[in-house]
Specification:
mainly alpha, 82% helix, globular
Length: 296
């Protein structure tokens, strides 16, 4: 039996209770979670490290056609590995077959990528129109562009919050339809936007704080690599790094991403209890309205 021990999902909880239950479910079941997911987490971390190393190498050393093609291929592998890993985590919660979870996680990933592409295209078009109507280029004030892009990014992120509930409902309930994510489930999540915002903000902040400490070795090797490239290309110094430095760098990346994967499980569990809380509140609201009609 792959399912982990968890508290009742059919309970209305505050944002602090959702965080507390997610923390308890993660650490009370950590040995089981680790034993059932470490292979998936390791595979994802290895691929993520390769992808990050290629991006880092491109930024520091420049790119070419072969490197670009390789980066695109690894990016697709990274997406696939992430989908499979999260499908495995959801499998521990809902007990559904891996094939079913992979299909649903893939559908969600495709949907969110499409939304991001549409939003990015709209922003890019607006920025391009702004530049096209203001010439010469050196006279353009970039401050309005930066401010508008920042505001648009924040607004897009806030509008995406109800999908926290809609996505989890789609992953937990077999009868839930994909179309409901865009309409009915999104509207339900929108009604509980404040609860989702507060819980997810605190959960992400907790993960970010821990990530800063976990990522210190990665920052150190990346900074050393950057200073080495700067010294060679600008000052003309010798590299000063050992020949095996990039191997060490890669393993540091992989280890960091491996730990990150388990920190992200906490956010998934918070989403799980948010879903249960919202479902319970919606049922209680319907029962109350039904009772009011009957007594009216």
């Amino acid at each position: 039996m792959d399912n982990i021990k968890k508290s009742s999902i059919s309970k209305s909880r505050s944002y602090t209770a959702c965080l507390s239950e997610a923390h308890r479910m993660l650490f009370d079941n950590f040995r089981v979670i680790f034993s059932r997911t470490w292979i998936y987490a390791a595979a994802m971390a290895i691929i993520w490290a390769a992808s990050f190393s290629l991006v880092n190498r491109t930024l520091l050393y420049g790119t070419n056609l072969g490197l670009t093609i390789t980066s695109c291929a690894i990016l697709l592998l990274t997406l696939a590995a992430s989908v499979i890993f999260y499908a495995r985590v959801i499998h521990l919660v809902n007990g559904r077959p891996m094939k079913w979870n992979i299909a649903r996680c893939s559908a969600l990933a495709t949907f969110f990528i499409a939304l991001t592409i549409v939003a990015s295209t709209v922003c890019t078009t607006i920025v391009y129109a702004y530049f096209a109507n203001r010439q010469p280029a050196y006279s353009i004030d970039l401050r309005p562009v930066i401010m508008a892009t920042t505001v648009a990014s924040v607004a897009f992120s806030l509008l995406m919050l109800p999908y926290t509930y809609a996505s989890m409902k789609y992953l937990i309930e077999p009868e839930s339809k994909f179309g409901n994510i865009i309409t009915k489930s999104y509207i339900t999540g929108l009604r509980h936007w404040g609860l989702i915002f507060t819980a997810m903000l605190l959960a992400i902040l907790c993960v970010l704080v821990v990530s800063l400490f976990v990522s210190i070795p990665m920052y150190i090797v990346t900074t050393a690599d950057a200073y080495s490239v700067f010294g060679v290309n600008v000052i003309g110094d010798l590299t000063g790094l050992p020949s095996y430095f990039h191997v060490i760098e890669y393993f540091v990346f992989a280890f960091t991403f491996f730990i990150w994967s388990y920190m992200n499980i906490f956010v998934i569990f918070v989403s799980y209890f948010l879903y249960g809380s919202i479902e319970t509140r919606e049922k209680e609201k319907k029962a109350f309205l039904k009772h009011e009609k009957q007594t009216a």
